[in-house]
Amino acid sequence: MAKSNKPIVWGLFAAGGTVCAFVIPVMILITGVLLPLGLFGPPEASYESMTRIVSNPVVKIVLFGILFLALWHAAHRLRITVHDFGIRNDQLVARAVYGFAGLFSLIALVTLLSF
Amino acid sequence: MSQRQITFEILRYDPETETEPRFQAYCVPCEEEWVVLDALNYIKDTLDGTLNYRWSCHMAVCGSCGMMINGEPMLSCKAFIRDLPAGTIKVEPLYHFPIERDLVVVLDDFMDKLESVKPYVIPKKQRPIEDGPYKQTPKQLHQYQQYSMCINCLLCYAACPQYGLTPEFIGPAALALTHRYNLDSRDKGRRQRQEVVATHEGVWECSFVGACSEVCPKDVDPAGAIQQMKIASTADWYLEHLMPWRRS
Amino acid sequence: MSRNPYVREVPRTTWYMRNNRYIRYMLREVSCVFIGLYAASLTVGLVRLAQGDNEWTHYLNGISSPTGILFSLLAFGFACYHSITWFNVTPRAMRIPKGDGFVPGPAIVSAHYIIWAVVSLVFLLMMGVL
Ligand code: SF4
Ligand code: FES
Predict the structure, then answer these.
(1) Superfamily of domain B3-105 in the CATH hierarchy
(2) Given a contact as 3+ CB pairs under 8 Å, which chains touch A?
(3) Where are the bilayer-spanning segments (chain A) (predicted)?
């Protein structure tokens, strides 16, 4: 039996799980509920304020960290969950979910840097 | 003393004459303070001498009387009938293990796994007897004490879905015992045990369902032990791969 | 006496229906779908924001639709379930030494809940909501 390479992805999963547990509920509340309910004003006003917020370098770093960890946490857990549902094609699933997480992390990084 | 007639549906299997198990019902006059094991003993003594099951201590220390009671892994000597919901009580051999006969399961798989993790103190070097006993402080004892309470009853294996789905998984009790020896101040065998622990079939098959710890009659918390070993194995991995010069 | 052990198969795709404990576990695991989709949707939101006023308005309309709001509420529920299940098991995965023993589990769990509340408040304050 060879030692497993799971620690690479598991380390990110565990770190991501902790970060998500602290910040994701309140973030969903803000961007998923309060923002659509118009708490930041009409679209033009929220466009202004959101652009200002994500232009802040500290926000950029924190937001990228959160998105990256949330995506990896979700990807790894989804890999296990798919297996739990009885789909045993683990290597293919792993490539798909980590690929998805990697792609979106990259998009988030490039976009944040553009502000 | 109040007596109640209770029906027990017991899974029977005779490997010599049957191809698959079947339920058999027995009506037992149960005393108020009886546990399920008492009812089984009543059946064996007065109703049907052919019923097979394991037990020994009748006090939750030997670990031999584990079975599924209404679908939940329990020690039958600790399962008070008055605590179970009224109605028929269903008794089956522990899930996830092959049935040897009636309520007796085949334990070979667990025994092999337990052996593979070297569940004994491996000292740095053997000390001659004249040197006296190894000493341990209360603090050193506390490090592993919880994980040393295991009685090998295997309720945790019957509760663990990952073991049921992937029988290669080393499983809760064997891993909890691995942790117990790794944490022992007298022991220097962790590196040897990591060869089993850090594999896919070791801690990485676990997805922290936590069912093992919920059913454990001794509060061993195998799930917690496994997560601690995942963290330690992850630290090992990063040390080995990112700082190869530290591999001593 | 001849041996002929009988093996009971575990149903591969429906095993979790056997027990409430397993269903709770699957609910916890499925939270990842919502957290992942939310993170992806937020990333799309960033892209829309970078593209300009118009695209941002489109995105905003999307997440303000009944489906959008429903998703957010569901995701919020699952995210909270993730937080609760995660915090509750933390002391078992990470024991903190204290004296001869360890910091009691409930103390560690409570600390996590307090930090959770503080972090949430800080986020709301910084966004000018409170
Ligand atoms: S860890 Fe608990 S449930 Fe598992 S064998 Fe040991 S005592 Fe039994
Ligand atoms: S008979 Fe010994 S543990 Fe139940």
Answers:
(1) Beta-grasp domain (3.10.20.30)
(2) B, C
(3) 12-37, 57-75, 96-114
